Amino acid sequence: MQLDPTPFDDPFSDSDSDSDSASDSEPNFSSWDTATHGPEPRPDWVVTDLSAIDTEFGILKTGKEADVHLVRRAQDSGPESLLAAKRYRTAEHRMFHRDAGYQEGRRTRRTRDTRAMARRTTFGRDLLSGQWAAAEFAALSSLWLAGAPVPYPVQLAGTELMMEFIGEPDGTAAPRLAQSRPTPTELTDLFDQCVAAMRLLARAGLAHGDLSAYNLLVHHGRLVMIDLPQIVDLVANPRGQDYLHRDCENVCKWFAGRGLETIEFEHLFGDLMAEAVGRW
Prior knowledge:
There is one protein chain. The chain is built from 6 helices and 10 strands. It is of the alpha+beta class. The chain folds into 2 domains: 26-164, Phosphorylase Kinase, domain 1, CATH 3.30.200; 177-279, Transferase(Phosphotransferase) domain 1 (Transferase(Phosphotransferase), domain 1), CATH 1.10.510.10. It has a 6-stranded antiparallel beta sheet with strand order 1-5-6-4-3-2, with helices on one face. β5 (153-157) and β6 (160-164) form a beta hairpin. α2 crosses α3 (122-145), α4 runs parallel beside α6 (265-279) and α5 packs antiparallel against α6 (265-279). Residues 7-23, 93-97 and 112-124 have low confidence and may be disordered.
């Protein structure tokens, strides 16, 4: 694996921090022993040895709620794997521009926590940040077990979710669907894969909630669904059906805009709702 760790600027770090003077030679050991682990059976590439070292190679993606970093976890002269480490923003840096609608139907056990999140206090925003990470980890875990095309969730530690890196061994990330240029045949196949994934979610009573060509990856012809912290329950969330309707519209319009004769998004929405109602 020809990867060279390169320093990168964290736009949310304190430039005057004493951490800059810390020794770069100190190994960053795997946090596996203190994290919540992904579902079993685990893929063979998951490195669980506590002597493994995590090496960072920079930011793969910057978003409003989180940044995704490329990390290599490797044992000395042993197995290694590339991971995508998604780190949700802390209270002072995070933008909670869309929390309210997605959070409907989610409950916390402590009334104090619920009040703090509703008021968007610093404590409440930290709780929300942790909730988003936990929600995405739980969604990926259940969907991966159900056979959905999602990255395998390796571990969760606080507001950091480490998952399978979708891309090449040299660290090149798989392109988003929006960046791809599929042939007509490939376009049809990708649409069929997308509908199959949406159907699988609907059968579980779920909707992605923010599905578009920007959170679908294409890796060697395989479509992979990402960015799932906002996944919604079609029953518990009163706006769940609205989110599913928007997902259908986004998907069908994107593929139609590339020349594919898709079914009407209203028809797709009806089909998916029928799948969801069938489980109730």
